[in-house]
Amino acid sequence: MKLSLLIRFCAFAFLLIGSFFLFFSGYPILGATIHFVTLSLWLWGTLRPSSKLFGKIITDNPSPEVLLTFDDGPDPIHTPQVLRILKKHQIQAIFFLIGEKSEQYPDLVQQIYADGHIIGNHTWSHPAKTFWISSPWKTFAEISKTQRILKHLTGVSPLYFRAPVGHSHLFTHPILAHFKMKLMAWNCRGFDTQTSDADLIWKRLKPKINPQAIILLHDTRATSPELTSKIIQFARREKFQFPSL
Ligand SMILES: [Zn+2]
Q1: Cα of 16 to ligand 1 centre, how many Å?
Q2: 184 bridge partner residues
Q3: What is the pTM of this model?
Q4: CA pair distance 191, 120, nearest whole angstrom
Q5: Following DSSP, what letter does each residue of 124-171 receive, concatenated?
Q6: How far is the CA of 68 from the centre of ligand 1 (A)?
Q7: First to last CA, the chain
Q8: 132-191 pLDDT tens trace
Q9: Known catalytic membership, residue 218
Q10: Ligand 1 centre from 162 Cα, in Å?
Q11: Ligand 1: centre distance to CA 65 (Å)
Q12: Is 35 a catalytic residue?
């Protein structure tokens, strides 16, 4: 564990334990206030996908390129459709794959990799509702099992991790450091898992597309092929670059 991560971990533990001590030692208001502020900070650091409170996170593409990222695959219907569009335009994307789906559809994982895209780790079972309160053991298992299957299928260990719904937590960073992985969020999303209205998603996405955009889409959604094409057409009109295959 890096020293800065250890210091952050110890600071949170000290404040939480200290607030209990104060509460039961005759300083209930001070103890409760420190406890409330510490918990609020912890929640903010956990539930805000771009929060850097617990460690580094990539939120903007460091290269002046529009980066397309696809979460929750591989999907037997929509992943091949998205791959065809990307191949036609010679654009490289990152696919954040779920481990158990990768085990179910190994050919798709290998096709994504063979097409020249980057494969990222998106946990084994995608525990969207509980990942933010997962124990270190559960977090380690979700990440390590997915690393194993993706390395087995492609020969390469993923270098990027994306937390389910962006909810990383205090233990995520030391575990990622162990695997030499970086945490990647996004800065452009259209909430495509909440609606099937492609026009509405496009309206949300378009104003946020810029030369350092990290765009979040899901290759499990029927809207993704159409939106991928729209993003490419728009960005090319605006003379924005993409990573190329
Ligand atoms: Zn996801």
Answers
A1: 31
A2: 58
A3: 0.86
A4: 20
A5: SS--TTTGGG--HHHHHHHHHHHHHHHHHHHSS---EE--GGG---TT
A6: 15
A7: 35
A8: 778 889 999 999 999 999 999 999 999 999 999 888 887 888 899 999 999 999 999 999
A9: yes
A10: 8
A11: 23
A12: no
Amino acid at 41: L
From ligand 1's centre to the CA of 176, what distance in Å?
Answer: 17
Q: Which of 219, 242, 232, 188 is nearest to 122 (CA)?
A: 219
Please report the domains of the chain, with CATH numbers, ordered by start residue: 3-47 (no CATH), 67-237 (3.20.20.370)
Please, which residues have CB within 8 angstroms of residue 88's CB and are 6 or more apart in sequence? none
Q: Which residues surround ligand 1, an ion (CB under 5 A)?
A: 71-72, 164
Mean pLDDT for the chain overall: 91
Q: Catalytic one among 71, 72, 192, 219?
A: 71
Catalytic residue among 122, 169, 173, 218: 218
